[in-house]
User: Which sequence fits this backbone?
């Protein structure tokens, strides 16, 4: 989904006047009688960021969308995960930390 800034082709630091000019230009480009859906998106984008108060609310209460495909691609591009033997896994499951232990050393297979 596009942000209101990209729909209106303005920078996030744009002034009220610049945003209004961009809105009017988009309305001319996509008039409501011919491009009803695009006009509604443009209208909503303008209402969302038309003044400083609206932009502040948008910045505070809008969560960015996560691109899970790129996150997964990035996670798997790091290379294969190290293999863990059944014995090593069992040791991890049985590991405990007492009250005096402050430093936990990583097993050799994690360091590699």
Assistant:
């Amino acid at each position: 989904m596009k942000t209101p800034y990209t729909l209106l082709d303005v920078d996030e630091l744009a002034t009220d006047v610049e945003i209004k000019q961009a809105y009017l230009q988009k309305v001319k480009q996509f008039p409501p009688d011919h491009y009803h859906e695009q006009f509604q998106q443009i209208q909503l984008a303008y209402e969302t960021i038309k003044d400083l108060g609206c932009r502040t609310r948008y910045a505070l209460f809008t969560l960015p969308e996560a691109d899970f495909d790129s996150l997964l691609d990035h996670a798997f591009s790091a290379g294969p995960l190290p293999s863990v033997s059944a014995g090593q896994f069992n040791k991890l499951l049985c590991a405990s930390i007492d009250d005096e232990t402050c430093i936990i050393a990583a097993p050799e297979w994690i360091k590699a």
About this structure: The two ends are 41 Å apart (CA to CA). Residues 88 and 107 are 9 Å apart (CA to CA). The mean pLDDT is 82. The longest helix spans residues 16-29.
